[in-house]
Write a structure and sequence with these properties.
There is one protein chain. This protein is α/β, with parallel strands linked by helices and 359 residues long. It has 2 domains: 19-119, no CATH class; 125-273 and 293-357, 3-Layer(aba) Sandwich (Rossmann fold). It is built from 12 helices and 12 strands. It has a 7-stranded mixed beta sheet with strand order 3-2-1-7-4-6-5, sandwiched between helices. Strands 10-9-8-11-12 form a 5-stranded parallel beta sheet, sandwiched between helices. The N and C termini lie far apart (56 Å).
């Protein structure tokens, strides 16, 4: 262990606890004159060097440029910084073997090879609601590498023992102060403050939002959100019914189904970034193309697992009650939609699900 390594590791731990993405930059090889030595290390964020030493100012522009790229796509890089020959000027960022080659910006000369390893915080999953399905998702998600934050008014932290954070309010302002944007969100309120849960999800500017509900109930909620001036594109991007088509019925099975979709999106996003927009080598076409694996049309019964026991009329009545006094025009429109109650055929397959799995 080199001198100062313990301090570097302590700073790295602090950055990870703060959820701050950074890169560990290590000097691999040098040719004199160079102020850095092999084994020198630094922690570098998108803003600059936080701690450590990898040489003087000559190397820093190339390092910072490459660190920003690595933090964007999650891929490690080897770079070489060396003076360009006067009779053979080099592209300022050329690929030489396995290394990206950069021209030295200083006249002092020397060669510096560095390995840049991005350290990204794990994708956080936000679970909104305290239904049986919410409890099951919060228990299973950490086992597939997803730290969980639970948001529910009056939430009992004891029911969510595996969650790393439990926020016992769904007030948007209070949540915004505690949750960073850019997460994945599952709304599993299932009839208890559905509309407010979706408002919070939209406020978080999530990478993706899933709603555990039937397709017809989800449409009612979408229309009400749009009438309340929420961004139509963001509202229409809400995935409902949530989950992969595995015929899930119990809360635990539904949690497994939903997390399969969440993992697919997480992996597809990382793969697409790493390939700079190319198809994910692990099956991105299945995630992005054709029949949407997260959509309602091909759920083959997953919608039934998410709420057939409650009638459409009763579920929509909850929505109208929640919206009362906020958007009169939208409320009247929803009231007209639910004037004629709909029974168990409010699902993709028409099969009934256990009551605990309802909307």
């Amino acid at each position: 262990m080199t001198e100062g390594s313990s301090d570097l590791f302590a700073v790295a731990q602090r950055l990870q606890q703060q959820g701050q993405p950074y890169a560990l930059v290590s000097v691999v090889r040098t040719e004199a004159p160079a102020s850095a030595r092999p084994g020198d290390k630094a922690l570098v964020t998108a803003q600059g060097i936080v701690h450590g030493w990898i040489g003087g100012g000559c190397a820093q522009p190339a390092v910072l440029h490459t660190v920003r790229q690595a933090l964007e796509d999650g891929c490690a890089r080897l770079i070489r910084i060396s003076p360009a020959s006067a009779d053979a000027p080099r592209d300022p960022q050329a690929l030489l073997g396995d290394a990206l080659e950069f021209g030295m910006s200083c006249h002092s000369g020397g060669v510096l090879e560095l390995f840049i390893d991005p350290i990204l915080p794990p994708t956080r999953l936000i679970v909104i609601g305290d239904s049986p399905v919410a409890v099951a998702i919060a228990g299973l998600a950490p086992r597939v590498g997803l730290p969980v934050t639970v948001i529910a008014r009056g939430a009992d932290a004891g029911r969510f023992a595996d969650a790393s954070q439990v926020i016992d309010t769904d007030d948007a302002a209070a949540v915004a102060a505690q949750v960073a944007p850019g997460c994945l969100v599952v709304v599993a309120t299932q009839g208890r403050r559905d509309l407010q849960g979706l408002r919070v999800a939209l406020m978080l500017k999530a990478l993706k939002v899933w709603l555990v509900a039937s397709a017809r109930k989800a449409q009612v909620l979408r229309e009400l959100l749009i009438a309340a001036q929420h961004d139509p594109d963001a509202v229409n991007a809400i995935v409902a019914p949530a989950g992969q088509p595995i015929g899930a019925r119990t809360p635990e099975e539904i949690a497994l189904s939903v997390l399969a979709s969440v993992v697919a999106v997480r992996r597809a996003a990382h793969g697409a970034a790493a390939a700079h927009g190319a198809a994910d080598a692990h099956g991105g076409a299945d995630v992005h193309g054709g029949a949407d694996v997260h959509g309602a049309a091909d759920m083959h019964g997953a919608a039934a697992a998410h709420g057939a026991a409650a009638t459409h009329g009763a579920a929509a009545a909850d929505v109208v009650a929640e919206a009362a006094g906020r958007t009169p025009t939208a409320t009247k429109a929803i009231e007209r939609k639910v004037a004629a109650p709909v029974g168990l055929d409010d699902t993709a397959s028409g099969g009934a699900a256990p009551k605990c799995c309802g909307d």
